[in-house]
Every structure is written in C-alpha cells, then in structure tokens.
Write a structure and sequence with these properties.
Blueprint: E1 7-9, E2 12-14, E3 20-25, E4 30-36, H1 40-59, H2 62-75
Antiparallel strand pairs: 1-2, 3-4
C-alpha cells in the first residue's frame, strides 16, 4: 500500500477532507501514492498559499528558482 501524506499546502502536509484515491504505476501495476482529492476549503487554502508566496518567488533570481525546482525534481521518483 502506498503512503498517505495529505495535501502539501504552505510547506506542510495537511488533511484535505476530500475522497481518497490511489495513483498507480502502469508499468509495475503497484500503488505509487494514496492521495486526497481535496475539499473546496483545501483548494482555497492552496490557492491562497500560492498567492501569498508569489511575490517572494518573483523576487528570487532565476538561478535560485532553478535550484529550488531541481531540489523538488530530485525528490520525485523516476
């Protein structure tokens, strides 16, 4: 069974109140992650968090943004 962590909003995993679903790796037919669809409130929270973060993100030099996205990429499975 895949691990469940909730939705990632404002730098932390939070419960969403939405329905749960499993994402599967089609090549291996195993569950990759157990996710939540997200409630209207959790979507609103995520949108607000993104709006709040945007001004600081825009001020970052391009090289720093690339570095941050490369760190995220390194955490993703192949």
């Amino acid at each position: 069974m895949a691990e469940f962590r909730g939705n990632y909003i404002s730098g932390e995993f939070v419960a969403s109140g939405g329905d749960l679903f499993q994402s599967h790796n089609p090549a291996m037919e195993d569950a990759v992650v157990l996710s939540a669809t997200g409630s209207r409130a959790s979507v609103d929270d995520a949108v607000q968090a993104a709006r709040d973060a945007l001004p600081a993100w825009r001020r970052l030099p391009t090289a720093d943004r690339i570095e941050a996205l490369e760190r995220v990429k390194a955490c993703l499975p192949e």
